[in-house]
Amino acid sequence: MRSTDCRQTAFNFFKRNKYDIVFLQETHWTKNLQTTIQHNWDGDIYFSNGTENARGVAILIHASLDYILQRSKRDSHGRILSVEISTDETAINLVNIYASRSDSEGDNSFKHSTPIYQRTMTTFLEEISIQFQTHDSTNSAESQKPNITQTKH
Fold first, then answer.
1. Handedness of CA 114, 75, 15, 66 (dihedral sign)
2. How far is CA 76 from CA 29, 80, 121, 124, in A?
3. Which of 7, 17, 33, 47 is the most exposed place for a label (fewest CB within 10 A)?
């Protein structure tokens, strides 16, 4: 996705198929590319950048989706991104986690990662869990049932 041609082909595919929300992994995007990439997409892009040779996750939200950003959070390794949005009266936490089978850092999974990264991941997941618990406690049992559908505009 670092290549302009590859990125434009993917973005055209997403637009042609009218996807509202797209999760990308292994983007290989860096901060210096964000403005250029943002101009290529008709909507918002949330980034957790890796390096130009590894990692990177993103969540793309098409301009046609009417939503309010509540908060976003990302790690500094280009592996984890959480974007909390609300549409009408529905709160949605979009989470994109990239865990490669192996990479140049030598980890085969999160269980083999460094202690610092494990603590970062554990803290991040605990915070997400707390957000869900807080949100769930304010909703009725009926509204807590998952409703997962493919969204197109």
1. positive
2. 13, 8, 11, 12
3. 17
Contact 58, 24 (CB under 8 A): yes
The residue with tokens 């979009």 is 94
Over residues 116-147, the pLDDT tens digits come to: 455 555 666 666 555 555 544 444 444 443 33
User: If we measure between CA atoms, which residue out of 22, 92, 20, 86 comes closest to residue 59?
Assistant: 22
**Location of structure tokens 């969540």:** 59
The residues pairing with 85 across neighbouring beta strands, listed in sequence order, are: 69, 92
Q: How many CB atoms lie within 10 A of CB 78?
A: 24
Alpha helices (H) in 71-112, listed in sequence order? none
> How many whole angstroms separate alpha carbon 70 and alpha carbon 85?
5
Q: Which helix (H) or strand (E) holds 86?
A: strand 80-87
